[in-house]
Design brief:
- The two termini are 33 Å apart.
- 0% of the residues lie in helices and 40% in strands.
- The protein has a single domain, classed as TolB, C-terminal domain (Neuraminidase), CATH 2.120.10.30.
- The protein is built from no helices and 25 strands.
- The strands form six sheets. The chain has a five-stranded antiparallel beta sheet, with no helix packed on it. A four-stranded antiparallel beta sheet has the order 3-4-5-6, with no helix packed on it.
Length: 302
């Protein structure tokens, strides 16, 4: 496995050759060539199913290989990849908590784990429900999706750490994220074209949901909406069946920002997770077996 290897594919160069789609009230998309300054690079390959992504305060990058039960760390300074935990409990989504520790959805063990990033010590902070993806408020309340029971669960603040079903849904949830400006909770409807917004009360209870984003889908209408993040502008960056999508909220004016769709590279399957680095310089995306990184034009993804 090569740590940093440029993809040897005919379509590479800038993203100019790609064909982009239209969505969000039929508006034309902006060209993805305006987003990037160089070629995509594979930073890790050969995984069974690469997934959850997070960055710590020092810029180190973490991701999971779910079926393999592995959690990896890529050093921010050297780019060297190392195995952080080889028995992750089939952890999927991961997120950094307000105290700087890493939390993850160990669906294989029906636990939420917390890792001390300095010592590597791992403890269970909640157990009893299947978990897929995770989001943590600035006050430390944990939310995670459970596609098997079509639920969103909540884990209260430490030291109580009480597990409660926060929402029972008529659809299958997957990706989950918080709006950094409002702490509103966004939950992706996996097999559809919508991401829903839930207001979050001070006690962590969820209010009535409403559609917040609409995504491009295939002819079958299945978006396969997965790992995502809300930008400071309110735009949504998300991995989908159509590839990477960057879309404005439904509440925005069509002229404010045009949605962008970046199809999967080469013969890769759907994009199942995507993250922007804290400094805004790199876009990281998971395509099942591969983790791909692209250099971002300054301020282009917002």
């Amino acid at each position: 496995m090569r740590l940093i290897a440029e993809m040897n594919l005919k379509f590479l160069g800038l993203i100019l050759p790609l064909c982009f789609s239209a969505l969000h009230a039929q508006s034309q998309t902006d060209s993805a060539a305006t987003l990037f300054t160089g070629k995509p690079v594979v930073i890790s390959s050969g995984h069974q199913f690469a997934e959850g992504m997070a960055f710590d305060a020092e810029g180190n990058f973490y991701f999971t290989d779910v079926p393999a039960g592995k959690l990896f760390r890529v050093d921010a300074k050297t780019g060297k990849k190392s195995l952080f935990d080889g028995q992750s409990g089939m952890t999927n989504g991961i997120a950094i908590g307000p105290e700087g520790m890493l939390y993850g959805c160990a669906g294989g063990e029906k636990r939420i784990y917390r890792w001390d990033l300095k010592s590597g010590k791992k403890i269970s902070v909640a157990e009893g429900a299947f978990s897929n993806d995770i989001a943590i408020t600035r006050s430390g309340i944990i939310f995670f999706t459970d596609p098997k029971t079509q639920s969103v669960w909540r884990v209260s603040h430490a030291p109580e750490r009480k597990l409660t079903k926060a929402a029972a849904l008529p659809w299958r949830p997957n990706g989950i994220a918080l709006n950094p400006a409002t702490d509103a909770l966004m939950v992706a409807e996996f097999n559809a074209d919508k991401v829903h917004r839930f207001p979050v009360a001070a006690d962590g209870s969820l209010g009535k949901s409403e559609p917040a984003y609409r995504l491009a889908t295939g002819e079958d209408g299945r978006g396969m909406l997965d790992g995502m993040g809300v930008m400071s502008s309110g735009n949504l960056l998300i991995g989908t069946a159509r590839g990477i999508q960057l879309v404005p909220p439904l509440s925005s004016k069509p002229a404010d920002f045009k949605a962008i769709v970046i199809p999967p590279f080469g013969d890769r399957p759907r994009c199942n997770y995507v993250r922007l680095s804290p400094d805004g310089k790199w876009l990281y995306a998971a395509f099942k077996a591969d983790i791909v990184r692209l250099p971002v034009r300054k301020g282009a993804i917002r």
